[in-house]
Amino acid sequence: DAGVIQSPRHEVTEMGQEVTLRCKPISGHNSLFWYRQTMMRGLELLIYFNNNVPIDDSGMPEDRFSAKMPNASFSTLKIQPSEPRDSAVYFCASSLYPQETQYFGPGTRLLVL
Amino acid sequence: AQTVTQSQPEMSVQEAETVTLSCTYDTSESDYYLFWYKQPPSRQMILVIRQEAYKQQNATENRFSVNFQKAAKSFSLKISDSQLGDAAMYFCAYRSINNAGNMLTFGGGTRLMVKP
Q1: How confident is the model at residue B100, as a pLDDT?
Q2: Residue of A33, A104, A109 to mutate when probing chain B, most B C-beta within 10 A
Q3: Which of B102, B110, B111 has the highest number of chain A CBs within 10 A, making it the mutation to test binding with A?
Q4: Average pLDDT, chain A
Q5: Each residue of B5-47: pLDDT tens digit?
Q6: Which of B19, B50, B72, B109 gives 20 to 30 Å between its CA and that of A83?
Q7: Alpha helices, DSSP H, located in chain B
Q8: Is B108 in Cβ contact with A101 (below 8 Å)?
Q9: Do B45 and A107 make contact, defined as CB atoms within 8 angstroms?
Q10: pLDDT score recorded for residue B97
Q11: What is the pLDDT of residue B23?
Q12: B99 pLDDT band (50/70/90 cuts)?
């Protein structure tokens, strides 16, 4: 089985531009998580979905960030407008049930100039 | 809120030797899960081992084992017969067992270097 798939793997953009990160969870998993990793803050949860419904978005830094899960096999994390402080590695993870082990994608390395 | 602390920013071990990475956590819950994830230079987060708090037996996966001390809120990872491919960042993580808290809370990580 394929693992969690994320695209793009690397993204370089200029401040003010819109950025869209994509995630395809493991087939059959019904929970999906977006994490951000920075040197300063480590790994932190941004938002998670259960059965395509956002359950906890308290980690979303501000209104510039939004996430959607239109169906069980696809989710997006959008940043508009992007800022240099958004530069980080963004991970998507999925699990069979909310309580089960989370499996991570390869991450998207975002650099905002 | 739960917190996870990894007090060793860096560790090194000689190839074929054994190394132990430390992790402590703070929680008021009685049931929860603990994890060790490995992050090699590729940045992929790879699950190493998982422990359910209600299980007294320490989890083991091949060369990886944990020492889970629930009363002390300690969860250390032992890597036996270290290999060059074990060099990576290792993150300890906590997760609540109830539906309201499915996020992973991560420690700050320990960078493990393996010397040939």
Answers
A1: 56
A2: A104
A3: B102
A4: 93
A5: 999 999 999 999 999 999 999 998 888 999 999 999 888 899 9
A6: B109
A7: none
A8: no
A9: yes
A10: 77
A11: 98
A12: low
Q: Across all residues in chain B, what is the average pLDDT? A: 92
Q: What value does the mean pLDDT take over residues B74-82?
A: 97
Contact B44 A106 (CB under 8 A): yes
* Edge-to-edge strand list for the sheet holding A5-7: A5-7, A19-24, A74-79, A65-71
At residue A113, the pLDDT reads 96
Task: For residue A62, count other CB atoms closer than 10 A to its CB.
Answer: 8
- Helix, strand or coil for residue A102? coil
8-state DSSP, A2: -
Q: Are A52 and A71 in contact (CB under 8 A)?
A: yes
Residue B73 to residue B4: CA distance in whole angstroms: 10
- Between CA A80 and CA A20 the distance in angstroms is 9
Q: Which tens digits make up the pLDDT trace of A48-101?
A: 999 999 988 888 988 999 999 999 999 999 999 999 999 999 999 999 877 778
B18 in Cβ contact with B12 (< 8 Å): no
- DSSP calls for B57-84: SPPEETTEEEEEETTTTEEEEEE-S--G
Which of A31, A48, A104 is closest, CB to CB, to B45? A104
User: Residue A82 corresponds to which tokens in the numbers above?
Assistant: 């992007």
Distance between CA A35 and CA A91 in Å, rounded?
5
